[in-house]
Amino acid sequence: GQQLNQSPQSMFIQEGEDVSMNCTSSSIFNTWLWYKQDPGEGPVLLIALYKAGELTSNGRLTAQFGITRKDSFLNISASIPSDVGIYFCAKYRPGSARQLTFGSGTQLTVLP
Amino acid sequence: ETGVTQTPRHLVMGMTNKKSLKCEQHLGHNAMYWYKQSAKKPLELMFVYNFKEQTENNSVPSRFSPECPNSSHLFLHLHTLQPEDSALYLCASSRLDRGYGYTFGSGTRLTVV
After folding, report:
1. Residues 36-95 of B with CB under 8 A from A
2. Chain segment A64-84, per-residue pLDDT in tens
3. Which among A31, B17, B36, B88 could disulfide-bond with A92, CB atoms 3.0 to 4.6 Å apart, if both were Cys?
């Protein structure tokens, strides 16, 4: 199948700590995406990765596209309370009706 | 304001009821999607509409019936649902020539009793 395995499922961290989560797949992709879903809202795109080995930052967020094109990680530095939410990895396959497929998500809780 | 508006935000319905979920976008997008989000499961793609034409039905039971009267509006008609259909239903839209640029609505939290 084309499932994305995302880990960990949940994380409880102290404010100020760094966070790391990852996503793996059995097949290769050309585009990896990371989304965040705030409580009571829909997912919002954080970072998009296009090339194997690519490292991209968006503020305190950093994501990398694995060399094998089968994995990606997302790091959040110096976490703050508003980082709470569910983080999803997703793969994009252009030309396919099933264009976005999501991982199962990582629920992040930031403790004061 | 996300650009994709879903109503209602919350819905409680009995198994014999008929209700409809509404999604509206004014972003000039030409593709619209319904996703189902259940607890501890990945977002599941249900239906895809490109230029008002349904191009994907991801083996969704017939008690869910989508309707796309124009490229700005999308409905999900519900009838004789089961308790396991309780979930967050998310609508999204995109431009077909801009790939992964999906915009999601805030969702409708559906509870079937």
Report:
1. 40-43, 45, 48, 50, 55-56, 58, 90, 92, 94
2. 999 998 999 999 999 999 999
3. A31
